[in-house]
Amino acid sequence: MSSLPDIAPQPARLVWQPAAVVAITRETPRVKIFRLKPADWHGFTAGQHVDVRLTAPDGYQAERSYSIGSAPDGSGEIELVIDLIDEGEVSPFFHEVVEIGDEIEIRGPIGGHFIWRAEDGGPLLLIAGGSGLVPLMSVLRYRAQAAPEIPAALIYSARRREDLIWCGELLRRAAEDPNFSLFATLSRETAPTEGIRHGRIDRALVDAALESLPAPPKTTFLCGSNPFVSAASTFALDAGIPFASIKAERYGG
Amino acid sequence: MATRGFIGKRPTDGVGDRLPPGQYLTEDFPVLSAGPTPRVGLAEWRFTLKDGVRPVMSWDWEAFNRLPQSKLTRDIHCVTKWSKFNTAWSGVMVDDILAEAGIAAPSEWTLAHAYDGYTTNVPTEDLVGGKAMVATHFEGKPLIADHGGPARLLVPHLYFWKSAKWVNGLQFTRRDEAGFWELRGYHMRGDPWREQRFTGD
To answer: What is the rounded distance in angstroms from the CA atom of residue A141 to the CA atom of residue A163?
Structure first.
């Protein structure tokens, strides 16, 4: 198997295909990670997502989009991170019913804008709210493997300590990687945790992340709920980041 | 292929037949765009109609709002899977913009332009004949910036990425020129009832 990342654009035609569930991890009280092995997979680009389609015995179908959290790594497998929405239709099914060995229908990879390849260069400023971390984690993991010399900073806001996805890995990467800085902040937690800040994202946090980079970011990626992305993009614009260098992905109401 | 153990939450009566394939109903109004929300002041706002590279007519905010006002109440469908029913818009029909400019649509294809640099291509026949407007109000109030204000294109029978936010012009083109998402793998027409999400659908 090649050790080179299997970077691939969105295919010319997206076909539904089965993907076997090969691993399930409970990452936080509300987040499970599903590792899938699609039947016919030709790689993806960090930042992309897949569509998932569930079919009931009578033919009723539900579709949703989920970002890929793993890096394009040549494994032929992808990790989808599914946040439990209590009143939802698809996320409770994943959390309560799906088991290793099940087959789930997917198509992808999808997305030609909110993506990053090593040749796109840096520095990179990544700003994530909640599960908005997922596509940015793919970017970070891929960068560490393909272009660790490109400077990157991540601002990551979650509600509580227990809601931080991949907390251990992020803290380890920040400690070990001289070109990566982590600015994690908790909006509803009071207990102190080493290496993690408190409070909502604000202009000062954006400024601190910018100061950690040796040059202004070439691209800024924002991902999270709409209120989070709206707030973060205002701070980013106020901090002087050019409008055209900001890529955003929003979800929810 | 049936998914083991999946039953699903069925839409209630009267909802299912209004939902295109793969869509679910939301009561919220989610916001989607590829970048930050541009800040467009009414004093600098302009809307320009072009035939190829040639400007046909241009309006400032005041002049645009003197054009005939119309209302459209429609179901809308976003390619990210949500649909919202009975959204109530008002603004200026594309038909009335063309009438004011004194032209009939000069080509089969149109490219919509927006303040954030976004573009989207729409077949001209999907814009005329009472199908589409440049909307300035949502549910009786001026359209907020997050939803595309001061003005957005509204083509409610196509996936909602065709309804360009912060629209500042319509350009008739000689061929079907792919817009922002269409260049990135999304469908050239985008009919939700035929589930035309991506190239090749």
So the answer is: 20
User: Would the pLDDT of A4 be above 70?
Assistant: no
Whether B5 and A98 lie within 8 Å, measured CB to CB: yes
Cβ-based contacts of A106 with chain B (< 8 Å): none
CB contact under 8 A, A114 and B21: no
Beta bridge partners of B171: B50, B111
Domain for residue B107, yes or no? Answer: yes
Max Cα distance, chain A (Å): 57
Q: Is residue A71 part of a domain?
A: yes
Helix (H, G, I), strand (E, B) or coil at B79: coil
Beta carbons of A113 and B184 less than 8 Å apart: yes
Number of domains in chain A: 2
In angstroms, the CA B123 to CA B179 distance is: 12
Same domain, A75 and A155: no
Domain holding A23, by residue range, is 17-110
Which residue(s) pair with A19 in the sheet? Answer: A38, A104
Measure the CA–CA gap between A237 and B71, rounded to whole angstroms: 35
Q: Which residue of B has its CA nearest to A50?
A: B80
Which pLDDT tens digit goes with each residue over B127-183?
999 999 999 999 999 999 999 999 999 999 999 999 999 999 999 999 999 999 999
HSE-up of A74 (CA within 13 Å, CB side)? 7
CB pairs under 8 A between A and B: 115
